[in-house]
Amino acid sequence: MEALLKARRLSKIFGPGCSLCNESTGPDFDTNVCPHCHSVVACNAVDFDLYPGEVLGIVGESGSGKSTLIKLAHFEWSATDGEMTLHRSGLPAALAELLADKADQYTCNLFGLSQFQQRQVRNALMGIVYQNPLLGLRMNVSSGGNIAERLLGAGWRHIGKMCDRASELLEKTEIPISRMDEPPKNFSGGMQQRVQIAKALSNNPLLLLLDEVTTGLDLSVQARVLDLIRSLQREFQLSMLVVSHDLGVINLLCNRTMVMKHGRVVESGLTDQILQDPQHGYTQLLVASQL
Ligand SMILES: Nc1ncnc2c1ncn2[C@@H]1O[C@H](COP(=O)(O)OP(=O)(O)OP(=O)(O)O)[C@@H](O)[C@H]1O
After folding, report:
1. Which one of 26, 153, 218, 276 has the fewest beta carbons within 10 angstroms of its own beta carbon?
2. Do the domain assignments include residue 182?
3. Which residue's CA is minimally distant from atom 25 of ligand 1?
4. pTM as predicted
């Protein structure tokens, strides 16, 4: 099977950067701040492949660069260096043509696209759920309206079809249809996450990005949201990138996992293997601390 998404040498530096940034930061130096120019190396030379229907976890302590990878993949931040390509076979024909790299079955480097083109890719192919629902939802707009807005962005125009799609998704995410016209600000934290999930799924994304989606929720609410994500992933065979500092979440959702520290991947492999037989000292600590 061929990868749906390939990321190569993903790097993000905050600050001016200098020729010594990469060789003076990372786990061996116990910092991601360059001692020469004081830039932050949020991630450096990260490679990964994501296969169709696969869930790839990104775990690590606070500041290790997990959210940076999600924000690069979602084009919220521009990469300092690196490439991201998608397999063309799963893309809508118009997009596959637009992004064609004639020599390859993968698209051109998506980081090289204009902002407009990146928005097209994002609207057609990606969904995202943030830890903070304020980032993913308009709190004063009805829940149905939040979903319709996303559908408009993805090119939908027929109001009736958008209403049907919103009801279908809210039902799937266990929001009572009777509350479809209410704004998310009226909802509990768990409900807001479920509306975010419904919105993120509305355009049938190939790729779903989850950034600490259950952090901050009560344990029982967390369990319900995670269960929902797991069943939706199976139903739609979604490919997902899941960021979490919680190994329980990673264990429940992810087939494979990358462990990050100071902007570098220190270990990656099958989640079971990483949890049962961690190789890197940092992963061993992480696993021991969460047992
Ligand atoms: N806008 C910014 N300007 C400067 N540095 C930033 C900026 N955003 C993030 N960083 C730095 O980049 C590094 C990686 O941040 P990132 O948010 O990716 O970490 P994380 O692993 O997701 O952490 P957390 O679990 O706390 O969200 C951190 O050192 C952070 O301070």
Report:
1. 276
2. yes
3. 62
4. 0.93
Q: Does residue 21 belong to any structural domain of this protein?
A: no
Answer yes or no: is 16 within a domain.
Answer: no
Residue with the smallest CA separation from ligand 1 atom 17 is 67
Number of domains in the chain: 1
**Mutational pocket test of ligand 1: of 25, 30, 64, the residue with most ligand atoms within 8 Å of the beta carbon:** 64
Give me ligand 1 centre to Cα 64, in Å: 7
Cα 139 to its chain centre, rounded Å, is 21
**Does residue 165 contact residue 173 with C-beta atoms inside 8 Å?**
no
pLDDT 10s per residue in the chain (291 long)?
Answer: 899 999 999 999 999 999 999 999 999 999 999 999 999 999 999 999 999 999 999 999 899 999 999 999 999 999 999 999 999 888 888 888 888 876 788 889 999 999 999 999 999 999 999 999 999 999 999 999 999 999 998 889 999 999 999 999 999 898 999 999 999 999 999 999 999 999 999 988 999 999 998 888 888 888 888 998 999 999 999 999 999 999 999 999 999 999 999 999 999 999 999 999 999 999 999 999 876
> For atom 26 of ligand 1, which residue has the closest CA?
62
Residues with CB under 6 A from ligand 1: 14, 32, 40, 42, 60, 62-68, 245
Enclosing H/E stretch for 112: none
Residue 189 is given by DSSP the state: H
Report the complex ipTM.
Answer: 0.96
CB 56 within 8 A of CB 257: yes
Give the C-alpha distances (Å, rounded to integers) separating 251 from 101, 103, 179: 36, 38, 33
What angle (nearest 5°) sits at the alpha carbon of residue 268, between those of residues 267 and 270?
A: 135
Ligand 1 atom at minimum distance from 263 CA: 14
Domain, as residue range, for 170: 137-204
Residue 197 maps to a domain: yes
